[in-house]
Design brief:
Elements lengths: L8 E5 L10 H9 L5 E4 L6 H13 L5 E6 L1 H9 L6 E7 L10 H8 L9 E3 L7 E4 L1 H8 L5 H10 L3 E2 H4 L8 H4 L4 E6 L7 H11 L5 E4 L5 H4 L1 H14 L1
Parallel strand pairs: 1-2, 1-3, 3-4, 4-8, 8-9
Antiparallel strand pairs: 5-6, 6-7
Helix pairs in contact: 1-11, 2-3, 5-6
Amino acid sequence: MSNTHELPNIVLVHGAWADGSSWNKVIEILQAEGFGTVVASQLALRSFDDDVATVVRDLDLLDGPTILVGHSYGGAVISQAGADRPDIAGLVFVAAYAPKAGQSAFQINQEFGVELPSGADLINIGSDTTPDFLINRARFHQDFCADLSAEQGAVLAAVQKPTSVLSLAGAGNRVPAWETHRANTWYQVSSDDAMIHPDLERQLAAQITDDERIVELATGHASMVSKPAEIARIIQQAAHNR
């Protein structure tokens, strides 16, 4: 499949309790700017390895350089899916986890040691041995996207995907992509995030990139929905910085 556009491909990876439609507003902006091949991966959120394989499959269908973008848990996925790939031209982490090799999203939270109240709003619809989590729909707006309207929050709550512990606690052993792409890795911090502590986001950002490629926005966790123009601008910067 040939990419005749001078701009790179963009692969957008959603996080837990979401799906590819969370990128809709960003996709519209990128397509209007001339990014011809923009793909939003659809993770099953059943296991980490399967989610990584889904993104690898999407990458394999493209031709030419690609910017990988991950939101929240999607940051863990792109860290492994983009490893050892010469077609990756840059990475953008949107209020996202950025694990080291062998580290999971859960483990990052445990090591940080500060729990957010939103953690109490997870409902296990799976088993005791293999939990499968939803966010309490009555609390979803407050936890996930408080800066959106109540109506927008209700829509996101209605379409949220259950997320297995096998995804959140999974890890890959390859050298993460951000370690080899530090010169064009970007991180967006959400200063009002109630799902990932903003200080943890700042810590992860400092781990994976330099100050000039860290952008802090006064927004909640779903920044690609609440601040699509700003998120698209960061992706555009990564595209032009390669």
